[in-house]
Amino acid sequence: MQDENKRNLMYFEASSMRALHRSLEVWQNEHAKRLLSVSIQKDSGKYCCIALSNPNEVIICDGSGASQAGVSQGALEIKNI
């Protein structure tokens, strides 16, 4: 896959949950990205994690611009100006 933005699947493994947590924390600090979901399983004596990161094309906006969406009374509000 050429586009780095499309690569949001990661794999981590460690010998303990503490070490796995540290690996995930280091990755987040280095890449300044959130993880959308993680799945942790024990496999062959190791703790393995498949994680999805927040892709770059997801933009969190405050709804203050003319072409942005906002939330009003718990519902998505889009104004076409």
Explain this structure to me?
The protein is 19% helix and 38% strand. The model has no long low-confidence stretch (mean pLDDT 81). It is an alpha+beta fold and 81 residues long. It has one helix and five strands, in the order E-H-E-E-E-E. It is elongated, with a radius of gyration of 18 Å. The strands form two sheets. A three-stranded antiparallel sheet has the order 1-3-2, with helices on one face. The protein has a two-stranded antiparallel sheet with strand order 4-5.
Q: If you compute it from the alpha carbons, what radius of gyration comes out, rounded to the nearest whole angstrom? A: 18 Å
The description of the largest β-sheet is: 3 strands, antiparallel
Helix content bin: 10-25%
The share of residues in extended strands comes to 35-45%
Q: Name the poorly predicted regions.
A: none
Q: What order do the helices and strands follow?
A: EHEEEE
Approximate shape: elongated
Structural class category: alpha+beta
Terminal-residue CA separation: 37 Å
Mean pLDDT: 81
The count of DSSP E runs of length 2 or more, i.e. the number of strands, is: 5
Q: Major sheet: order of its strands?
A: 1-3-2
Secondary structure tally, helices: 1
